[in-house]
Amino acid sequence: MRLDKLLANMGIGSRKEVKELIKKKSVSVNGKIIKSNLSIDPEFDRIECNGQVVEYQKYVYFMLHKPSGYLSATRDQEQKTVLDLLKTEDQARSPFPVGRLDKNTEGLLLLTNDGQLAHELLSPKKHVDKTYFAKISGFVTENDVAEFLQGVDIGDYITKPAKLKILKAKEVSEIEVTITEGKFHQVKRMFEAVGKEVLYLKRLTMGSLELDSTLKLGQYRALTDQEIQNILEETKG
User: Residue 19 and residue 21: Cα distance in Å, rounded?
Assistant: First the structure.
């Protein structure tokens, strides 16, 4: 990897700023001051900038509390995307959302540049649980619970069994639902199929990963080492 690219990816500065640091002899590789850009091996070479060791991370993993109004995409010509919520140095790592949350859906969204992990988490073979909280127009009943458990005909597809938990059964009901797949607008279409409408939807979990209750809407943080280990473990095999 080119030295300037690594330093830029690690948030040291833009490519232009990094090249200026190299010119000013502020960067060393394996204890030697570097006077011009060069190729390095980030796994083995020791890189320092202004006397501080630069720790190389191949992959980044961010937990975002997605607000309504943002697309789960990396770019869009007209609308805001979830990447607009990231700091410039984190955007430079080229993360992308794992799966999609609808524009008006809130909650847990994983952002990473680890393509293999993303593939495994989204693979239908893995059956990774995803739990949502929702407010529903209409009384949610035990009949709905039974129908969700059997699988719901949403028109072009019969869903896999889903666990529906009633928190409040009123004119506007509150529920939690756990699904193991991620068809387009799946939760909304499942409730439409039983004659009800989703008014509000928020994802709480994805596999072992739980939305951090301290994150406000639009905030994000890096996953902990334990969280990363847990999701890597559950996608093995």
Answer: 5
- Whether 182 and 144 map to the same domain: the answer is yes
Q: Based on the fold, state whether residues 142 and 116 are members of the same structural domain.
A: no
Tell me if 133 sits within 8 A of 210, measured CB to CB: no
Catalytic positions: 102
pLDDT one-digit tens code per residue, 155-196: 989 999 999 999 999 999 999 999 999 888 999 999 999 999
3-state secondary structure at position 70: coil
- For residue 137, the tally of other CB atoms under 10 A from its CB is 14
Do residues 128 and 234 touch, judged by C-beta distance below 8 A? yes
The whole-model pTM stands at 0.85
Which tokens hold the place of 136? Answer: 């529903």
Contacts of 53 (CB under 8 A, 6+ apart): 46, 47
For residue 79, the enclosing domain spans: 61-124+209-234
